[in-house]
Amino acid sequence: MKRTVFVVLAALLASPLWAAPDGKALYEEHCSACHQSEGKGGIGLPLTEEILSQLTDDYIAKTIRSGRPGRIMPAFVALSDAQVAAILKYLRSWSNKPAPVYPKLAVKGDPARGKRLYQKHCQRCHGKDGAGEGSGTGVTLSREREFMVMPAAINNPGFQRAASDAMIADIIRRGRKVGGMPAFDRKLSDAEIGDLVSYVRTLEPLPPVHGMPEWAGKPAYIMESPYGFEETVDAIKQALTGANFRIFPARYLEQGLTDEFSVNTRQVAIRFCNFKELYHLLNIDPRLGTVLPCRINVIERNGKVLLVSANMVEIAKLFNNRELLEVAVLMEEIILGVMEEATL
Ligand code: HEC
Ligand code: HEC
Question: What are phi and psi of 301, to 5 degrees?
Fold first, then answer.
């Protein structure tokens, strides 16, 4: 926002006809749940003195207005201009540093050279496509331990709309100490930073990853078998072997939970694994190990034989990690294929 606009706004707000909106109250109501009191950051990025000194008033106002579509920062369309200005004023009151002023000129550079520099210096944190992985929450499961907060999605249209070229260049130069982003002013020349900015400008969100629509939102895949209990168990084992899975000894679902004579032998878990896939998945997110659903349960109930397996894609969604989701979509296809073959 231009200074003159501010002066006019300030004059308006100061006039007795208007009760000035209370920036602190508005911040507490709309922002503090994610950004914490005084902008310590949590689910939302930190808004500390150091960071505010990189963010122009225009950037902050646009960020409040358009949010980060597809991420968790909402767009505040219902706030009036005066309310947005009051929040801004309140944010600035935390810091002695003035709002930065950047040159209006677009930064020039070569996006092809920028892409190579991006792969070398930025990709490990911001991801191949600039999505930063996760949904931009400081607490997401996929965050690497060393990061204080999740690297932001710099391919997000909300960010791209709000940030100027010169501001992006300044962030690269100075880094973000609070969040763990290094400063590149000593490592890269001005020309290289220009190349990077012009590449960052080309980043846009990838299309979303979906699993099979008919199973979306369902916690488990469930199919009814036309065969008897033992036949079904055999058919699943055969289909799994055909799909290159290694099968472990089957277990009764109640094994260990009750004594061996009252165990219900008409419900069994067939456990299987494809080590190559498994290592690949665990490489992407080791925490997946605790919830890996490599099993198909066969349950006989009221004369029906059912196949039940946890929905891979729904589990992967909890990890907010695109790469994991892509593998889960492939695994889903294979597991559903096995379940279908066994019940054909
Ligand atoms: C539901 C959580 C949530 C709420 C509510 C929220 N934010 Fe955010 N905010 C985020 C997240 C997460 C990001 C990081 C962007 C991303 O996802 O890539 C962010 C980013 C920002 C940024 C950009 C910071 C930077 O370093 O570039 C600003 C500025 C900001 N928020 C201000 C606000 C203000 C002001 C409010 C209240 C009007 C608000 N936010 C409400 C979660 C939230
Ligand atoms: C070690 C990890 C790491 C590296 C390497 C890294 N960043 Fe970041 N970056 C982050 C984190 C974390 C944030 C959010 C930090 C914060 O706001 O406190 C961030 C923020 C940003 C932002 C501001 C986004 C926003 O919404 O405010 C831009 C732009 C950015 N990085 C670009 C780059 C570029 C370009 C490179 C390569 C030259 C790079 N980063 C290298 C971790 C990294």
Answer: -145, 130
pLDDT digits (tens, 9 = 90+) for 130-156: 887 644 444 444 445 555 567 788 998
> 259 or 156: which carries more pLDDT confidence?
156
Res. 102: pLDDT tops 80: yes
**Do 210 and 329 contact (CB within 8 A), yes or no?**
yes
The pLDDT, as a whole number, for residue 136 is 43
Instruction: Give the ligand with the smallest distance to the CA of 146.
Output: 2
Which range (104-118, 247-261, 315-329) has the least confidence?
247-261
Q: Whose CA is nearest to atom 7 of ligand 2?
A: 181
Taking the C-alpha atoms of residue 157 and residue 67, their distance in angstroms, rounded to an integer, is 9
Q: Whose CA is nearest to atom 3 of ligand 2?
A: 181
**Residue 274 in tokens:** 């494809």
Q: Which of 67-71, 221-225, 325-329 has the highest mean pLDDT?
A: 221-225
Task: Please determine, for residue 302, whether its predicted confidence score (pLDDT) is greater than 90.
Answer: no
Q: Which atom of ligand 2 is nearest to the CA of 117?
A: 38
CA nearest to 154, candidates 136, 166, 138, 179: 136
Q: Percent of the chain, pLDDT > 70?
A: 83
Other CB atoms within 10 Å distance of the CB of residue 90:
18
Contacts 24+ apart (CB under 8 A), 156-159: 156/68, 156/69, 156/70, 156/71, 156/131, 156/205, 157/66, 157/69, 157/204, 157/205, 158/63, 158/66, 158/67, 158/68, 158/69, 158/71, 158/73, 158/75, 159/63, 159/68
Nearest Cα residue to atom 40 of ligand 1 = 31
Name residues contacting ligand 2 (CB within 6 A).
45-46, 51, 121-122, 125-126, 147, 149, 151-152, 154, 159, 168, 171-172, 176, 178-182, 184, 196, 200
If we measure between CA atoms, which residue out of 139, 109, 144, 149 comes closest to residue 124?
A: 144
Q: Considering Cα of 98, then 175, then 63, then 114, what sign does the dihedral take?
A: positive
